[in-house]
Amino acid sequence: MRALLPFVLVPALLASGCFAGDPAADAGPGDGRIKLAMLQPPRSGLSPFSDDAFKLSRWSTAETLVTLDADGNARPGLATDWQRTSDRSWEFTIRGGVTFHDGTALTPAAVVNTLRRATAASPKPRILDGVDLTAEARENSVVVTTGEQDPLVPHRLSSPQLAILAERAYADDGRVDPVGTGTGPFRLVAVNGTTTATLDRFDGYWGEEARAAGIDVSFVPDGTARAAAVRSGEAHIAEAVPVSQAALLDPATLTEVPMPRTNTLYLNTRSGPFLDAGLRAAAREAIDADEIVRGVYEGRADVAEGLLGPALPWAAEGRAPLADRTAPAPPNGAAITLATFSDRAELPEVASVVQQRLEDAGFTVTQVVREYAHIEQDALAGRFDAFILSRATVLDSGDPVAYLRSDFTCDGSFNLSGLCDPAVDELVGAAGRAEAGEARRAAILAAEAAVLRTDAAVPMLHERVIQGDATSVVDSAKDPRERVLVTAATHLR
Question: According to the model, what pLDDT value does residue 19 have?
């Protein structure tokens, strides 16, 4: 029961006005602190080697060597420039005058320490799946070498999972503590388990000083509670406002952005009924994505034509129709377990619609819904026949290859469907080796087509991020990649 307390207590917190330091009492510009309601609590103690890294990034407390612009191009971060010195090596010049939040200086040795810790982590950060990477410190630079030619090393180093922290952040037992060890405009000063986090402005920041005095974070898995927090003044910013709550908010407080996130039905190819390609095809044919977009998302999503959606316009422009698809086989009452998680408010409703359509097609369906923290391990272990996941497709490097590798290759670290297909592995590998530009995009689409032909994953829709900002908030980030939220420029009127 203990792990469920943050979820259970949220309505009571809202009712009592005790939300993350009672922002209703200090929501004005006098204090200048941003009150933030976030979707998911930390899963791994805010370790940057996990998906918790994106919280550190969205709070502008941990920074990377490289950043990405709106078009996904690599731009300077803690590295001021870089050059390719051989087929497998890149040299990054480290920015001078940068101080970690603990008062130590950013040096090439500190960068190398982070990268070596990341490569030795178990599990590895997802961005390093299938990557043999070493780092060597020079006087003012770091040389990064990969086992194979990798044209996207700068993009890879933009991943929040490779944020550079002070050396004292890393314990000998593999744990990482980001409290007071980042370089960003906000210093993480306290974390209260899975309930709250507190950040203060860092006056020694190397860049533009933060305009807000700090950030008070509350983790609020309940979507209704997050939306209510903005309506009531309990929060200034709420991420991932559920579609069902959007209509209840003042339109002036809502921003809707197409994002590289796909709602996908993963089918277990390791065991159970979906070992049969014909039954996977039957499941694919049973799904009515348009029904889900209209009914569950109230039109605030896009029907999927593939794994990659409208946030990547080149995918829609270059994708060819799939031919030679497996013919559906009659389910004949095949019993399957369909699972999803409750943290994203729409997913249980999506699961109900999918269950109905699968039953109409002849399957016998049992549904399982839990919070993500309590279902991920079972999903990765293949204990469900089908799993509905809302999945970011370019979260790590601004490039879909990392997603395709982790989710659909034999050695992928997030392979929910258990897919292990030599043709898929070969094409994903080819995409990873291709140079940036048109050739790489064509290779990515070929790999996507190979995955779709297996029917191990049935893409249903592409989500749009709906963010709630109080009218007092100025310059919060609306980031399709969900890397940035509160920046140095974000403040209250």
Answer: 55
Residue ranges of the chain whose pLDDT lies below 70: 1-31, 395
Rounded distance between C-alpha atoms, residue 255 and residue 480, angstroms: 11
Cα separations in angstroms, 77 against 80, 100, 155, 336: 6, 14, 11, 47
The CA distances from residue 218 to 30, 36, 232, 237, in Å, are 21, 6, 15, 11
Residue with tokens 């469920």: 4
Nearest Cα neighbor of 351 from 384, 302, 400 is 384
Query: Do residues 80 and 140 touch, judged by C-beta distance below 8 A?
Result: no
Tell me the whole-structure pTM to 2 decimals.
0.73
pLDDT digits (tens, 9 = 90+) for 453-485: 999 999 999 998 899 999 999 999 998 888 999
How far is residue 410's CA from residue 86's CA, in Å, rounded to a whole number?
29
Q: pLDDT by residue (tens digit) across 16-53?
A: 334 554 443 344 443 599 999 999 999 899 999 999 99
Q: 17-55 burial string, b = 16+ CB within 10 Å, else e?
A: eebbeebbeebeeebebbbbbbbbbbeeebbbbbbbbbb
Q: Using alpha carbons only, what angle is made at residue 207 by residues 485 and 480, rounded to the nearest 5 degrees? A: 25
Which domains are present in the chain?
2-242+466-492 (3.40.190.10), 258-465 (3.10.105.10)
